[in-house]
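Hi L.,

You mentioned the student needs an example of a multi-chain input paired with its predicted structure. This one should do, with 970 residues in total across all chains.
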Amino acid sequence: MSTPVTVRLHVNGIEHQLEVEPRLLLVHALRDHLGLTGTHVGCDTSNCGACTVHLDGRAVKSCTVLAVQADGAEVTTIEGLAADGELHPLQEAFWNDHGLQCGYCTPGMIMAAAGLLADNPNPTEAEVRRGLEGNLCRCTGYHNIVKAVLDAARGKGASVGAGEARQHAEVTS
Amino acid sequence: MSATMSGDGRAASAHVGRSLRRKEDPRMVRGRGRYIDDIAIPGMLYAAIVRSPEAHANITTIYSASVKARDEVVAVFTAEDLVEDFAAPMAMAWSPPGVEIHTPENWPLKRDQVKHVGDPVAVVIGTDRYSVVDAAEDLVVEYERLPVVVDPERALEDGSPLVWEQFGTNRTHEYKVSGGDIDAALAEADVIVEQRLVNHRTAGAPIEPRGVVADPRGDNFTLYSATQIPHIARFILSLITGIPEDKLRVVAPDVGGAFGSKLQVYPEEALILALARRLGRPVKWIETRSENMMTAHQGRDQINYVTLGAKRDGTLTGCKVRIVADLGAYQLLLTPFIPELGFPVMGGCYKFQAIDLTFEGVFTNKVCTDAIRGAGRPEATYWIELTMDKLAAKLNMDPLELRRKNFIGKDEFPFTTALGITYDSGDYEGTLDRMLERFDLDAFRREQAELREQGVCRGVGFSTWVEVCGLAPSRIVGPQGVGLQAAFWESAMVRVHPSGTATVFTGTSPHGQGLDTSFAQIAADRLGIDPEQIEVIHGDTDQGPWGWDTYGSRSLSVGGEAVARAAEKVQDKAKRICAALLEAAPEDIELADGKFRVRGSPDQAKTMAEIAGAAHIPPQELPTDIELGLEATSAYDPENFVFPFGAHACVVDVDPETGKVKVVRYVAVDDCGPAVNPMLIDGQIHGGVTHAIGQALYEQVSYDADGQLVTGTFVDYALPTAAELPSFETDRTETPSPVNSLGVKGIGEAGTIAATPAVTAAVLDALAPLGVEWIDMPLTPRRVWEAIEQARGGVTR
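Structure written out for the whole complex:
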């Protein structure tokens, strides 16, 4: 084991100082050192995107960033997305539109979608699909994820009353 | 939707049938799920497994001393060190009467030989996630290579290398199922089509890999595992480790997808549990993606030889199929059974005089196959539907007309097939008609012709599918029936608390299906409370009654029915208590508008909260012959399977220059009986269809001739992404099943079962003008391009 180094991470608005191995991945710093287990690991090769977080406002795969590279940076994880206990419009839209099943890809998918909407607030369906190409989901077939992102972009995230989702739309293309 | 509800339970329906948002989601969208790798226990150690890089080899020497000496390493174990730790080898649960299945002993660590890449040979235990991986990589194992066989048909040839010398053959077993006189049926046919089809090997590939945390507390153990089957796992792990069932608790936390790949009792679960016992400390093992691709069981991998016979007018006569199934190197829990699992619906939605099926299992030097979403039924749909298309072409008939001519009619249910299987209910014409209303085939053919003029190859493929699910009637599939050493009834316990809220305990173990919500809807209608007031507990062997877990699209039609029955028992008791409180007769109490009230006097009513209060703190007027408390348990064993069905259409564009296929439209009309939560049904169809599109176009587990896994990561194993797919068009018809009181059928596997033939047929339709008649899945650009070139008489590989 090599000599630990000190990193300062500003995560979800809180500053942390950690002593870490230089090779420690950001995702493991978040999960194992800070207990922020909402960020997930699904592959070894940066394909699945389950570990997506925001680094200085940009969506990155935290399995492909060393903790030392994030020294001094602002990190936002899924736990930091909801402000003051209110769900973020994307979180609300994923809930309304059944955009998740097992929920494992969901934090990364929502963080990637938030990055996408920051760059392109009014995407077309094709742009959403292309924009989420780096995030894999095995449960939903992406249909309701894409719908949720489009709904969030159109401000529909919080428009549904508590309890019931939109009535079943028989054709949802 | 024109479902008519009937019967007492469903007449009161307020919540069933609605697309309620999921109760599961608020914590999950906030990152507050609790998956296996999120579990940390004080004093916990980490494990990393040393795996074979060879596909078949003798283990000659393991050098562990230098690794053991490292500060961060607590212990290293090989198979030799653990001989006393296991009371039995890994389990295989199928023992069909009269059929011998070669089943080698399969211990958690391999002692003398390895049989596929990834076979575990040693385990390193240490204090840190990273350093155990370093140590496992540095541990040196010497192997002496043995001959390898990876192709199942080659493995059946004389002189093939043997995976297991002691059996003298790679053939694991042969199993036959038949009904009617197949020779007479085929002799009577005017037209015979024969087709060889390949259902290639695929991975379950849940985004969460496997993982285990074992926590010892004296003689008691808790095993957390990313599993679909905590109850079955406890039973089997108790046999393997010798830990009594009462001292072993198995918990499935939130499970990040499974798709059948976590319907298994894996060597790693037994190993980590035994090591926690040995060391007296909690031990965690989390699989990497590369390990998952090497060692989680895989699916399909069949070669199908299909013969269909028909009269000149299209009337089917006989169906004869030989299925060669590549089982890999061992027998895991259900490995040899999975190909046979589809047999009740082999023959599809069609009437045959005779059906004759022969299954041959084969050992190869690959990881085992076992259940992956659909498990035997996607393979069956693929061969029957595509061979029907071939037959239609040979008869010069429209493929949909050929199907209609041979459909089991909606008035013929319950229908007993040539194999003696009774299909419960169906309306195959109805789903096909509904699908065609949406699809508009005439408009499509006009568009297709115009596009062809412009050089665009657009095609459509259809699948009219039926499947068998709702596993299962215990006496049909159990030891004296099909021969599974298990039963498949399901349990539920409904407990109303003193304040009137309720907890539902189910023996199923969902991992994304949304049962927290749909089961709460079922219970809410029967208890007169809101689904928000009901928690559904699952996946913990210490909570609720014994259960048989989640697989085979069984959770709703078996587990949901158990919930309904337990809730109705509670409702009956609540009515008796209510009657006593209101000085009425129990038979005069009805549940309506969320209240228990006297029929004809709606003002005389009690809420569930009032009744539950009286059940727990009895007032004087409550008769002493009413037992206190308010909970009930049900164990439901279905009398038959259920048989969902539907009609799908897929439209693709094929680029003839590159061979690239793009799915441009997908229409799915499915029938799983009355919907409990339509939104959840659509979600299952979207995911299932995508899984099948993946198999048809992109995904394939590949081994080279030396048994090296070529597709060991998500770089090489191509899951579909959002960018490759269209949005889906879904619709339903609702034909109730007579098997259960809810009328429901399973839907979790339907899309996967339905879609591969529709996608393949669409590509073949697109390329028909170029003279392409057949391409085996996966329809990758290279394969499609080669088929086009071959049809043009050009270059081939």
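You could point out the following to them. The mean pLDDT of chain A is 91. The longest strand of chain A covers residues 5-11.

Best wishes,
N.
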